[in-house]
Amino acid sequence: MPNWKEKYQTVLESKSPVKFIIGVLLIIYGIFALLTPFTPGSWLTFFGLELLGFRLAVWDKIKNKIFKK
Known about the structure:
The protein starts with a helix and ends with a helix. 6% of the residues are buried. It has helices spanning 4-13, 17-35, 44-52, 54-66. The radius of gyration is 15 Å and the shape is globular. By secondary structure, it is an all-alpha fold.
């Protein structure tokens, strides 16, 4: 039985439609939370973007600027 780290890694690396739907819903809810003052969940937008894979595109640029040689 794989431990939780291995299972989490396989879910993040998969191209599952469930992962796509959850990512889109998190982005929509995060934008809604940003526009309304009653919900403090706008940070969920970033989790949705990470599920869809946008973190990887931006992370390389940030990493190059921080760890510039």
